[in-house]
């Protein structure tokens, strides 16, 4: 059965915790592990019922999601109980089902785990109303990622835009350059920035998942969505010419020691939070850092940067003749068959499919929604609005994080599989063809067991 690692938004939870540490807000009983207050208004159709929801979110993210749950309570009369699932959602939910304490709703941050749950018979197909709202409010690709076989199980409520390159405006201004529009321009811009005395890129290569995200953006743009899908499902080998070409393209950056702060060796000793600090911290070391929209939250919350002023992003640029990529991750809400209150759980998902529900967290911050009917003005700043607009405007060309669709042993395990082989490639990018062959060997082994 396919198992995968945590995706973009769940990564952001772990990342924020790693950087913030003791700065995370303490939650009261209503935020996590407790019940929401009774309804202040609404028709009370679910009065007396409690919906238990499990999610990976903690700290500020849990507090903000609770605001969404509280609004649901006001509308329906249902109480809600939010419980933390921890990183391994599959293990948590499985143990709860075995113990007769399954939550009614689970927030699942991987396509593969939604598939796994459905194949085990743990899920209830979503109601016609939830499906109708999803069809109306979301690009079709999001419904596809929540569908297993012919049945719709997973509603993607929270998403990430993982095609954002963050930069210090001062560093680019000092070098006399502007944000690039193409990958070739980005390499040229990086060279000019480095020549000005500031290394162009900080790369958190110690965390292998950052390197998979680099590859996915290059590959999606250069090879196109069709081949991306085939590679994600391993219906095409990693030795395909398109993979080798993408590695060659990525190697133009990874193999140029002058473009990376402390070179590739230094990048391999740098974790993701440190790479953000190297650009936006009190003593900047580099001009740019690539990763998802969650970089902005770290720059703002941990380093007191003002989004849109001293912390900006440009879309990951198009490679060659391809289109600019939009790679995403997300958290899908599912209703569990063994939950004690399926009816109320389904009502919650019908609510989460609406732009009104998304607007609550959007206003609170630290959130992107794939809901195309959500007014962009709901986001608190123009930078977040721009990241959300890019995500929504991509429509059906959005692609979910490829490594999060793979078996965990290949796409999401430290020290092995794709993470390790791309770290090796960062250290020595001289032979893309050999790297592709090693990746294919690892993929064959992992997919044969999935």
From TrEMBL:
InterPro entries: Bact_solute-bd_prot1, SBP. Residues 1-31 form the signal peptide. Gene3D superfamilies: Periplasmic binding protein-like II (3.40.190.10). Transmembrane segments: none annotated. PANTHER family: ARABINOSE-BINDING PROTEIN-RELATED, OSMOPROTECTIVE COMPOUNDS-BINDING PROTEIN GGTB. Belongs to the bacterial solute-binding protein 1 family. This is Extracellular solute-binding protein.
């Amino acid at each position: 059965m396919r198992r995968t690692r945590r995706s973009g938004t769940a990564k952001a939870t772990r990342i924020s915790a790693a950087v913030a540490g003791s700065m995370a807000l303490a939650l009261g009983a209503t935020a996590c592990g407790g019940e929401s207050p009774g309804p202040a208004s609404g028709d009370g159709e679910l009065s007396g019922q409690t919906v238990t929801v499990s999610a990976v979110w903690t700290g500020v993210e849990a507090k903000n999601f609770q605001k969404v749950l509280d609004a649901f309570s006001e509308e329906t009369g249902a109480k809600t109980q939010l419980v933390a699932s921890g990183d391994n959602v599959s293990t948590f939910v499985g143990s709860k089902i075995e113990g007769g304490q399954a939550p009614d709703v689970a927030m699942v941050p991987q396509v593969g785990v939604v598939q796994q749950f459905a194949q085990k018979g743990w899920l209830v197909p979503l109601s016609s109303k939830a499906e109708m709202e999803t069809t109306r409010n979301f690009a079709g690709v999001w419904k596809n990622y929540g569908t297993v076989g012919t049945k719709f199980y997973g509603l993607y409520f929270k998403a990430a835009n993982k095609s954002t390159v963050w930069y210090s405006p001062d560093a680019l201004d000092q070098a006399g350059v502007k944000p690039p529009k193409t990958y070739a321009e980005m390499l040229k811009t990086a060279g000019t920035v480095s020549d000005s005395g500031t290394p162009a890129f900080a790369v958190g290569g110690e965390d292998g998942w950052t390197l998979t995200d680099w590859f996915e953006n290059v590959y999606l743009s250069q090879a196109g969505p069709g081949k991306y899908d085939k590679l994600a499902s391993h219906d095409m080998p990693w030795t395909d010419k398109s993979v080798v070409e993408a590695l060659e393209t990525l190697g133009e950056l990874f193999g140029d020691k002058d473009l990376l702060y402390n070179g590739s060796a230094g990048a391999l000793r740098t974790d993701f939070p440190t790479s953000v600090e190297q650009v936006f911290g009190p003593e900047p070391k580099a001009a740019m850092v690539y990763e998802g929209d969650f970089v902005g939250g770290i720059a703002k919350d941990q380093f007191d940067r003002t989004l849109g002023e001293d912390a900006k992003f440009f879309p990951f640029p198009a490679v060659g003749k391809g289109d600019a990529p939009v790679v995403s991750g997300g958290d899908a809400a599912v209703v569990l068959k063994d939950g004690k209150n399926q009816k109320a759980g389904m009502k919650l998902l019908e609510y989460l499919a609406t732009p009104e529900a998304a607007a609550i967290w959007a206003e609170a911050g630290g959130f992107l929604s794939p809901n195309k009917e959500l007014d962009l003005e709901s986001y608190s700043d123009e930078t977040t609005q721009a990241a959300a607009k890019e995500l929504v405007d991509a429509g059906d060309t959005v692609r979910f994080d490829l490594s999060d669709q793979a078996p965990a042993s290949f796409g999401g395990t430290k020290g092995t599989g794709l993470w390790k082989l791309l770290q090796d490639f960062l250290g020595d990018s001289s032979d893309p063809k050999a790297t592709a062959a090693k990746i294919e060997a690892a993929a064959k082994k992992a997919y044969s067991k999935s």
